[in-house]
Structure formats: C-alpha cells, structure tokens
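Annex B. Sample input.
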Amino acid sequence: MASTNGYLGVTPPISTNESSAKEKEVTATLMEELRRQGIFESEEESKTREIVLGRLAALIKKFVRQVSLSRGLSETAANAAGGKIYTFGSYRLGVHGPGTDIDTLCVAPRHVTREDFFNVLEGMLRGMEGVTEVSSVPEAYVPIITTEISGIPIDLLFAQLALPSIPEDLDLQDDNLLRNLDDRCVRSLNGSRVINEILRLVPNVDVFRDALRCIKLWAQRRAIYSNVNGFLGGVAWAMLVARVCQLYPNAVAGAIVSRFFVIMHKWSWPQPVLLKPIEDGPLQVRVWNPKLYPQDRAHRMPIITPAYPSMCATHNVMASTQQIMKEEFQRGCTIVDQVMNGEAEWSALFVKHDFFQRYRFYLQVTTSSRNLEMQNKWSGTVESKIRHLVMRLEFVDALKLAHPFTKGVEKVYYCVSEEEAQVVARGEVPDAVAQRKQEDIADNKGAITMYTTSFFIGLSIKPKEAGSTGPRRLDISYPLAEFLKMVKMWEKYDESAMNIAVRHIKHTMLPEHVFEPGEREAAARPKKRSRGAKDSPAPAAKRSRTESDSKSRPTSAASPMRATTSSTLLSQTNTASARPTSTTLDDLPHTSAQAADPLAVTASA
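Annex B, continued. Sample output.
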C-alpha cells in the first residue's frame, strides 16, 4: 500500500539500498540468539492455538444463535445471524511467543448486545470443556472477558455492529462499519483494524516480524513494556518498528534493529510517529489533532494509530517513564553499535533490568483479598491507577524521578489466625507467614488464604544542593492521600474485603520474592563508587544482610553512617487512619569518605 509518491509512510525512505553482507551476517546471529532466548513457540502449541480458536469460533456462532432465538428470530434467521471472531495483537502480528495470550474480538449483529456477551457468553464459556478460568471486566474502558482454554490464555473483546447478520467475508477495514456504534464498540474494533493497517503499511512483513520480535524481547527484559504503567504497549512498539521499516524498505532485520535504536534515541519528541497521514472519516468522532485539542498537545511521545479514527497509543507516557525509555534507547544504541562492530554479542541487549537494585528507596503498594477472583479485579483496578500516583509524585520537589515497575508481583500467604491475616492486609508479612506453605495449613480449619499483589515505584532523589546543611524533607503525603481516595472511589470497592497498604521502604527491605535466586546476593557485592554516585544499590556492607536481619537489626550508635530505617506503613484500609510518619533515611550511597545525607520522608493518608 504505497503512497501516491510511490513509498510507504509520510516521508520518503532514508535509504532504499540493500543491506550489506555484514548486516546480513549479524541478522543471522540475531535470529540464532532469539531462538536461544526461547521466544518461538513449539509446533505443538501452535496447533493447540489453532484448535482453540476453532472451538471459540464455533462457540461464538452458537452464542449468537441462542440469543437470536431468544429475541424471537426464526430458526433460519438465527442460523444466518452469524457471529465471527478476529484476532489482533501479537498473535495477528505473528510475533507471539510461548504462553502468550491471544487477543480476540467477537463481532455480533445488532440484536446481540454487550449485556448478552457478559451474561450469556460468559456462562457458556464456563461450561466449555477445557476452560480453567473465566473472568470479566464489563466496566473497563474496553470491556473484556479473559479466559483460558486448553492452556491457551484468551482476551476476548466484543463489538456489536449495526448489521442484521455477520457475513463470513466481513472486512473490518470498512470505515462505514463504525456508523451508529457506541465508543466502546469503536475502541474494541480499533485493535483489529490497527493491526491490519500496520501489516499493510510495512514493505516486508517477514523483516518487520523478525525485528519486532527482537524489540519486544528487549523492551520486556528492560521492563519498559507496559502501556498501563506509562511505558509503551505492544501496538506502540509495533508502530515504531514499522516506521523504521518504512524508512529502510530493503534492509534486513538486523539493520532495522540497529537503525531503530539510532532513530529512537535521536527522535525529537513530541514530534509524532505516523505510518500514514491522518485521515478523516464518516463519524463525528475525535481524531488526534494537537492543533485542535490541548490534551493532544500534552502527549509526550505521540505514536499515532494508522486506522480511522486515529488515536494516540501512548497517552499514558509520563515525564519519568519517558526519561527511563530515553536512557534505554541510548543503552540499546551503544550495545547494538558494538554488535555491528563485532565488539559485543546480541545477548548483551537482552540483559535483565536492574529495577530492584537501582534505587535506594521504593514505594510498595500492596493490594490483598481473601478471594482470588475478587483480588484479580481489585488489583487490576489499582494497577490502572498507579500511573496517577506517579504523575503526582513527579510534582514533589525533592524527587527527580518516580519509576513504576511494569507489573504487579503476586504472592499468596497462608495465615493460621485472623490476627495474621490483618497483619498481611496492612502490608506487613512476618517471617513465619512468608515461609508457610499450603500443605502446612491443610488440617487447620480456621486457616485464611490471603492473595496479594504488590506494585513498586522506585524513587530517585535529587542530589543535595551544594552548601546545604541538615536533613532534607520529602513530603509525599498529598500524592498518597489523593491516590488512595481515587482507588477507593471504584464503584465495586468493598472496604470490608479489599485491602490496600502503601509503605516506603529501603532497598534492603524489598521482599525476597521479587528477586530471582542469586540476584540479591549479586547486587550486594562491593563496587567502587564515586562521590557523586546516586540511585544505585548500596555497597555490600549495607546490602549483605538478610531480609530478616534488615527488619530487626538495631542501629549501631558507633556507626554515624548508618541511619535508622524502617518499613513504615503509610496507609491502609480496615484500620484506624494512619498517623503522619517521618522517617529519616539517607539518600546517597556511602563511601568511606562520605557522610550520610539524611532525608526526612513524611507521608500520611
């Protein structure tokens, strides 16, 4: 699908030259590394996916037929009503890996409603053979049912079209299909329409897929793959790679990856990334336009979807997350340059992030419930609000950056008493509870299972100004109070069953289960540090203690460089309102020639 000028995209290609022998060689080594990384699914899993999709397609037709009959349609009309599924996301792009979900859209005729989708289809899914879990979020921005069929996770959206029946050859790219649809249906359709358009706008689909697999793996390993937390989601990363493919239409995957980092590192944000000119359409709907809408002008890294109506896929990006991504682009640029020069291996690009070793201080937001289904919905609601907490933290004077981790860390605790369950609900987990296993409570009828999800935000503190003396104060009470007020405004919030606790902690107090085996010990090894070092792990003398030691070890009066610290509870539900707390913490790493920089953290809610 070339433009009228004979090229894909909004500008001419930078180069139409074929890739060099060296670029083809590094592409071969890239594909070998991707295979070593295990990102390709097996043939058996691929066949299972096809079978599952076939079963789901049959179920959708059965669902539409059943609802059609309940609406008084004849047998003939009910059978002809159709109902169809479309895939989108990584599966439709052809870059999915083992265990990844399939994004799926259910399209139904006008007499089948969204209420039918959640009331009727959800029940049919629960009765389907091989289904192990079903969960729905009807009130979501894009309403969704999540399920797992024969071990394959499925995310299922719904769109009700203004048609009496759904033909087998229906083309969703027809803009006229959007007429008379509500916003949620338009958003649901947009996922499939955008992916189809991306695939039409790249010069070589195979090269695009290979390069995108690399970038997806890199973004996931570096913990910058999450739309909900203010980074980029799968569609945004795909559009960035697609744009680079347009600029180098005859390059191989290795060359595309190399140029990707160079271009993204130097990109002049907020200059938008476009795969084609923004188009008008048949609807009276808002299309991304920074000249018209102040909200669109505020987008920091606009990446614009190519299907009508064009939207910004990156409206969640914040100052902190943009800075983190810019640093990762620079890191990637350096490594890939070394790879191209034969000075490094591709594996260096995919080294795991250092989020839990990177900062001195963290906020830990922990949600908990005694029911798994309730916890999934509660934690999902809180996760969707974490970015609002980050945005408020960015206005705190003493903070340079607030870095949200890209996913919640789940943990199940087995409590033998109500008192233990209340302690876990407050975000405090005694060692005895942390180490207890499910079999340990098998014979205890009064045992309580607590499902928890913790979200972490790394806090980067501004360096102390030259000549300043005395402790500095970091007051985060207002951002926390506003955040807690926001999450508790959820219409399904139940104070008696849903808990949330927020704590500010030092890196030594991070829970053991956020680390892989050996990670914590490796981070504790001594390193040479300059006087200006910051936002890095403490030296071994500060990090070699075990988690239990860090909770109980007293401060030595003979050691002026070790400031008192505790995992102070900032706010919790189901308890009396928390009092303001002020804990003196030292901000900068210590060296033998450096005194502690005390930081008074004040937080209340």
